[in-house]
Write a structure and sequence with these properties.
Order of helices and strands: HHEEHE
Subcellular location: Bacterial flagellum
Distance between the termini: 132 Å
InterPro entries: FliD, FliD_N
Strand content: under 5%
Largest sheet: 3 strands, antiparallel
Family: Belongs to the FliD family.
Domain Flagellar hook-associated protein 2 N-terminal: 8-103
Protein name: Filament cap protein
Shape: rod-shaped
Number of helices: 3
Helix content: 40-55%
Strand order of the largest sheet: 2-1-3
Length: 142
């Protein structure tokens, strides 16, 4: 137990505490300034992050794939497939099949002849070339 200021009537603990408060004022101001600077630093970091994201988005806009990409789908991929280019207009397109394609075939109906000689359509053409080599010219009828 401590009895302070008994003889003088002054509270020494109170006086020392008040003097220490006065000495801590500059330290408290520095701590407050430090806290303010930390808040500013955090805000600058956040602003720099947002600026970086904006610059990245602006740079990506130079690439066509970023903002002009198109996709295609087909209800029957086995029948129709499509490719979309950035210049393709958006929309739904329908394909109507009027008739199916078939391989082109030309069959001779004995219309190729050379000086009275005709091609036999039942035999291979390569086997019949000798008869045409002696002929001076030949004609093809359509």
């Amino acid at each position: 137990m401590r009895i302070g200021g008994l003889a003088s009537g002054m509270d020494i603990d109170q006086l020392v505490g008040d003097l220490m408060k006065a000495e801590r004022i500059p330290l408290d101001k520095i701590k407050q300034k430090k806290q303010t600077l930390e808040w500013q630093r955090d805000e600058y970091r956040e602003m720099n992050k947002l600026m970086y994201e904006m610059q990245t988005a602006a740079r990506d806009m130079n690439y066509e794939k970023t903002y002009a990409s198109k996709t295609t789908t087909s209800s029957n991929e086995g029948a129709v497939s499509a490719t979309a280019f950035p210049s393709t207009l958006s929309g739904t397109y329908k394909v109507k099949v009027d008739r199916l394609a078939s391989a082109a075939v030309r069959v001779s109906q004995d219309t190729v002849s050379a000086v009275g000689q005709k091609i036999d359509s039942s035999k291979a053409f390569k086997d019949q070339l000798t008869s045409f080599k002696t002929a001076p010219d030949f004609s093809v009828g359509l």
